[in-house]
Amino acid sequence: MTATTFPTSRVDRLTVFEIGEAVRRGAIVVDIRSQAARVVEGTLPGALAIDAGVLEQRVDPAGAGRLALAVDHDVEWVIVSSDGAVSGATVAALRRLGLHRATDLAGGYRALKSAGLLGVLIGQRHCVRELATVAAH
């Protein structure tokens, strides 16, 4: 499968079948759903949970509140929202910050759940290593 294009921002979006490969190559998956949405819909094991309202300051490598993982503008961030609608606008904002490898998941969390792929991030070496880095930060 090939990535689809988000019509309003021309950003290649990942499909649910591509997210595992993205993580294997080093992408960091960020779940931007609210805590309330994660309680209702379920969690995305292995993803960082960062509210959309503070995401930019957390992933901007020049930001004072940045995560240790936000080392430069070349980090591949994969943004996941409930259905993929909010994540497209979020990616556009990240790209304006210079995060040129930011992308999102077409269909969001619900597409992953429908495809039976919620566990795709669990156990990936990169994901485990990065989550350990966040915990130590």
Summarize the structure.
The chain is an alpha/beta fold and 137 residues long. The chain has helices spanning 19-24, 35-41, 55-59, 85-96, 108-114, 125-136, and strands at 4-6, 11-13, 28-31, 48-49, 77-80, 103-104. The protein is built from 6 helices and 6 strands.
How much strand? 5-15%
Number of helices: 6
- Structural class call reads alpha/beta
* Overall strand count: 6
The radius of gyration computed from the alpha-carbon positions, rounded to a whole number of angstroms, is: 14 Å
Which consecutive residue ranges, at least 5 long each, have pLDDT under 50?
1-10
Helical content band = 25-40%
Q: Distance between termini?
A: 36 Å
Overall mean confidence score, pLDDT: 86
Q: What is the approximate shape?
A: globular
Order of helices and strands: EEHEHEHEHEHH
Q: Taking strands numbered 1, 2, ... along the chain, how are they ordered across the largest sheet?
A: 4-3-5-6
Could you characterize what this model shows?
This protein has helices at residues 19-24, 35-41, 55-59, 85-96, 108-114, 125-136; strands at residues 4-6, 11-13, 28-31, 48-49, 77-80, 103-104. With 137 residues, it is an alpha/beta fold. The model is unreliable at 1-10 (pLDDT under 50). The chain contains 6 helices and 6 strands. A 4-stranded parallel β-sheet has the order 4-3-5-6. Strands 1-2 form a two-stranded antiparallel sheet.
